[in-house]
Each structure stands twice: as structure tokens, then as C-alpha cells.
Design brief:
single chain, mainly alpha, Growth Hormone, Chain: A, MFS general substrate transporter, transmembrane, transmembrane helix, transport, MFS
Length: about 350
């Protein structure tokens, strides 16, 4: 709400940074919740549903046309309040270190006000004590171990390139269409985001279903642990042309992003929030750099060559990563599994000396 009365540009930028800090953590918490409540065989579909945010620029264009840009922040504040109310009222704690498989009684301060989704039992899960981390373990968690894994870093970089291309496309749609089609209003420009958003929605949902089906096809079962050897695009054309390409682009970009996010969560079981935070860091840093340069590049190179450059960058960054992870991924996971086994065998002998 502090954004709405602002006229100073620098203060608007600072407050937007604060807003982004809050929204980024919400994304991480959302993906972390998915890893808590869903098995690897179910995550693809849920991640696809959680990736439907690109459809909202449609509403943003209509709000900017009728209420000004401040109307966007009013609606954002209202939606945030509604979501926060729902979280406080009904969302139970899902962190497995606290509630196990969901049946363990959680502390009073973590219980929802309206426990509609809460169910406790008196089985073995309820009787297990809470796992408490030592200070050394908390300090080590600040630099997650998965950031030292070659395949994880490769996937995070590839995902960041695809995400940056999507953000560059979304940021350039308004100026490109307003320049090429002067009869468009803010509302109709917002509607022009519909193909991109619809493609993103279909790509996310369809890829989620495909990911779950492929997981099962290769022998993965719901609830089962993943074994180390498991096989894991110039205005002046008709307006319909860029909209059709936006749809195709939205679907073709979000599908691999969804797959990348799913495999990252599978490579670091139990660390969904940390994985998503690291993924957001990679994606937002690269996106900020590209979006900051996209307008200057468009004026210098032209719209067509700009997207040739961006798509070429995406291909160069994504294809080698897919080949590398496909060829070396199982071997790297088996090596990490052997290292964990050696560590678990060595520690008891060390303590007995």
C-alpha cells in the first residue's frame, strides 16, 4: 500500500524491491509446501498448477487503463490480504521436520485458526520426537549442499535462461505492440498477454501431467524414494501473428521450466524451499540484467534481431545442459549416494574410538 501514493521514482524503486523480496519468499514457501505434501510422482502436476501466474498481466492492463498504475497496487494489496487471511485461517504446518507425514501434533503457535485441513493420529508418526538442528547444522544450511552439485547448478542455470527469456518477452510486449499498433489501449494490450498466459498455463499444466506420467512410465511409484539409477519466438504483420507466436512461446518456455523445477526438487529431497530460493536467485538475477537491457537492445538491433539473440542465448544455454544432465546425471547421483553411504558408515566408527 505504500507504493500507491508515491511520486518519487527512486522511492518507488526501493519499495518495489521490498515488495519483490516478500513475493519471492512466498514462491519459495509455495514450492516447499508442494515437496512436503506430494511425492515425486505427484509433484509435476502440482508444480504446473503453481506456475500459472503469467496469466495475470491481462488483469493488469485493464486496471492500468481504467484506474491508472496505482490501481494495480490496490488490487495487489487486496489479493495479498485475501491470500494471507486464507493462510492464517486454514493452512496447516507442512514441514516434515515438525509434523512428519502430517499426523504429528504441531505446536499451538503453528496451528491454523480453522483446522479444516488438519488431521492428527496416534500412530508411529505421531510418537516420533521433533528433530532439532544444532547450531552447526543451521550454519551449514545457509550454503545448501546441492549448490555444490554440478548437475544441480547446470539445471538452475538453464532454468534461469528460460525464465529470463520469458520475462524479456513479457517486458517487451507492451512497447512493441503500442509502437506497431497505435490503436491499442492499455486494456487491449493487457488482453494481448492472453495468448502468452494461455500458452504458459497450458504448457505448465500439460507438462506437469506429462512429467507425472513419464515418472510412472520409467518405473517410479508414488511415495517411493528416487533411486540414484532412476532415468530422471515485426509488428506490421496482422495482430494475430505475434499473438499466435506468443502462445507458442509461452507454452514452449514454461514446459521446460516446469521440468527443470521438478528435477531440482527431486535432486534435493526435503529441501524444496531452499531449492526454490536458489532457483529464484539465479532466475531473477539473470532476468533483471536482461530486462534492463532489452529496450536498449530492441532500439539498437530491432525487434526481430533482439529475439533472435535471446532465443539463440536460450538454445546455447539450455541444450548443452540437457545433454549433460541426461548423460551424466545418473552417474553423478550414484556417486553422491555412495559418498553418503561411506559417510554414514564412517561416523559411527569414529564415535566409538
Amino acid at each position: 500500500m505504500a507504493l500507491m501514493p508515491q511520486y518519487a521514482y527512486w522511492l518507488l524503486v526501493v519499495l518495489r524491491c521490498v515488495q519483490s523480496a516478500g513475493s519471492a519468499s512466498t514462491v519459495s514457501i509455495g514450492y516447499g509446501t508442494i515437496t512436503d505434501i506430494a511425492t515425486p510422482g505427484e509433484r509435476g502436476t502440482l508444480i504446473g498448477i503453481a506456475s500459472l501466474g503469467p496469466t495475470w498481466p491481462i488483469l493488469g492492463g485493464a486496471l492500468a487503463d481504467h484506474s491508472g498504475w496505482r490501481g494495480i497496487f490496490w488490487s495487489t494489496a487486496a489479493f495479498s490480504a485475501a491470500v494471507n487471511a486464507a493462510l492464517v485461517l486454514i493452512l496447516p504446518e507442512t514441514l516434515r521436520a515438525i509434523v512428519g507425514n502430517g499426523g504429528r501434533q504441531q505446536p499451538l503457535y503453528l496451528q491454523p485458526l480453522v483446522p479444516l485441513l488438519t488431521r492428527y493420529d496416534n500412530g508411529a508418526d505421531a510418537s516420533q520426537p521433533l528433530t532439532k538442528k544444532t547450531a552447526a547444522e543451521v550454519f551449514k544450511a545457509l550454503v545448501p549442499r546441492f549448490l555444490k552439485q554440478t548437475d544441480m547448478l547446470a539445471i538452475l542455470t538453464s532454468n534461469a535462461c528460460a525464465f529470463a527469456l520469458f520475462q524479456a518477452l513479457a517486458a517487451s510486449i507492451s512497447p512493441v505492440l503500442l509502437e506497431g499498433y497505435p490503436f491499442l489501449t492499455q486494456t487491449t494490450v493487457g488482453l494481448c498477454f492472453l495468448p502468452l498466459g494461455a500458452g504458459a498455463a497450458i504448457g505448465s499444466s500439460a507438462s506437469g501431467l506429462v512429467l507425472d506420467r513419464e515418472f510412472a512410465r520409467f518405473g517410479g511409484t508414488r511415495g517411493a524414494r528416487i533411486s540414484p539409477g532412476f532415468p530422471l519466438e515485426r509488428a506490421r504483420l496482422h495482430l494475430a501473428a505475434p499473438l499466435v507466436f506468443n502462445f507458442i512461446t509461452g507454452a514452449s518456455i514454461t514446459a521446460p521450466m516446469n521440468a527443470h523445477q521438478s528435477i531440482c526438487l527431486d535432486l534435493a529431497p526435503g529441501q524444496g524451499t531452499s531449492v526454490t530460493a536458489a532457483s529464484n536467485l539465479f532466475r531473477c538475477l539473470l532476468s533483471a540484467a536482461i530486462v534492463a537491457a532489452v529496450d536498449a537492445l530492441r532500439r539498437k538491433l530491432g525487434t526481430g534481431w533482439l529475439f533472435v539473440l535471446l532465443s539463440g542465448m536460450c538454445v546455447i544455454c539450455v541444450l548443452p545442459v540437457l545433454i549433460f544432465v541426461g548423460l551424466r546425471g545418473p552417474e553423478l547421483r550414484e556417486e553422491r549416494a555412495r559418498r553418503r553411504e561411506d559417510d554414514s558408515e564412517w561416523q559411527p566408527r569414529q564415535s566409538s574410538v
